[in-house]
Amino acid sequence: MSEQQIHRAAANESPYPPPQAVRDAVAAASTRINRYPEVYPTELARAIAAHHGVPVEQVAVGAGGAGLIQQMLHLVARGRRRGEVLFAWRSFEGYPLIAEGMGVPVRRIPLRGHAHDLDAMARAVRRRTKLIFLGSPNNPTGTAIRQDELDRFLARVPRRVFVVLDEVYRDYATDPATADGLATLAGHPNLVVLRSFSKSYGLAGLRVGYAIGHPGPIAGLRGVTMPFLVPEVAQAAAIAALAVEPEYAARRRAIAAERDRVTRALRAAGIPVPDSEGNFVWLPLGERTAAFEATCRAEGLLVHAFPGEGARVSIGLPESNDLLLKVASSGTVAGP
Ligand SMILES: *Cc1c(COP(=O)(O)O)cnc(C)c1O
C-alpha cells in the first residue's frame, strides 16, 4: 500500500498550523495547568473588546461559538413559557442538535436558492418565537446576508425576539455588500453577534468563541456561564492570536482567493456552486452527492456530504483544492 496524504476538508478548519507567537503563548501557559483559570476570562474579554472597539460589557466569552449557542438556548429554555427557535434550513447542524438536546422546539424555514428567505422568516415569527439564528455566511451553502436585507429584517422582527447573527465566517467575506453585525448593533438591542476563534483564527481545537451585543443580553449570557469555562492555555492562545491579526488577515485573503478560484473552476466543470463568502464551497449535487464523497475519499480528500443534497468542501492549501477540482472534472459528478 502506498502512503496517501489525507486532506481534511470536512470541518471548515484552517489548513495552517498556529503562528509561532501563538504556540509560544500556549507553551508558556502550559506550565500553569495545575491551577484553575480565572472564573471568567476577564483579560481575554478585554482583548476582544479592544479588538472590536466596544466596551467590555458588550462581550461574552464562551466555549466556542457552539458554547454560546447553547447559552442563548438556555435563556430561551428557562422561564415558565418555553420559547421556540427559528433558523433557516439547511444551515448549521449545531442549531437543531443543541436545541433538541435541550428540549427547545425548533422551526426550520427553507432556504430560497441557497440563501436565507428573510421574508419567510419574518412572517414565521409568532408569539412563542423567542430566538432566531441567522448564519452569515451560511454554513453549508456559503451565502451571506446583505446589509440592506438584514436592516429590513430587523425592522420587521419584534424587539422581544432575539436575533443571533452567526458571523463565525464573517472574516472571510470579501463582498462589500455583506451585512456587518457589529455596525448594526446600534438601535437593535435584540441583536447578538456571534464570533469564534475556531474559524477566523484556526483555533478550533481550543474552543473559544464570543458574543457581542447590548449589555442586557450579554449580562444574560454571562449569567448562564459555567465557572472556569475557558482554560488558560486557550485564553493565552486567543490573546496572542489577536496580537498577530495581520498574519491571520493575510491567511484569510489567501483562502478567499483560493475559494474564488475553486468556485470559478467548479462552475466551468458544470457544477452550479453558489457564491461563497466563507472558507468553504457548496456543491449542490443532489443524488450524486454520495458518489462524489466516495470518490473524494478514495483520493484522500475528506468532505462533508449531505446525501441527496450536496457536499460542503472546506478550502485548504492549493494542493487540497486541486484535488477537489480533479474529482469534480473526472466525470463522477458531471451530471445531467
Ligand atoms: C463552526 C461553527 C460554529 C461554532 O464553532 P465553534 O468551534 O464552536 O466556535 C458556529 N456556527 C457555525 C455556522 C459554524 O459553522
From TrEMBL:
Superkingdom to which the source organism belongs: Bacteria
Pfam families: Aminotran_1_2
Signal peptide span: none
EC number(s) reported in the record: 2.6.1.-
Species per Swiss-Prot/TrEMBL record: Micromonospora viridifaciens
SUPFAM superfamilies: PLP-dependent transferases (SSF53383)
Region (Disordered): 1-20
Protein name, per record: Aminotransferase
Cofactor(s) needed for function: pyridoxal 5'-phosphate
Chain ranges of the Aminotransferase class I/classII large domain: 10-305
Family designation: Belongs to the class-I pyridoxal-phosphate-dependent aminotransferase family.
InterPro entries: Aminotransferase_I/II_large, ArAT, HistidinolP_aminotransfase, NHTrfase_class1_PyrdxlP-BS, PyrdxlP-dep_Trfase, PyrdxlP-dep_Trfase_major, PyrdxlP-dep_Trfase_small
Transferase found in the keyword field: yes
Keywords (A to Z) from UniProt: Aminotransferase, Pyridoxal phosphate, Transferase
Molecular-function GO terms, alphabetical: pyridoxal phosphate binding; transaminase activity
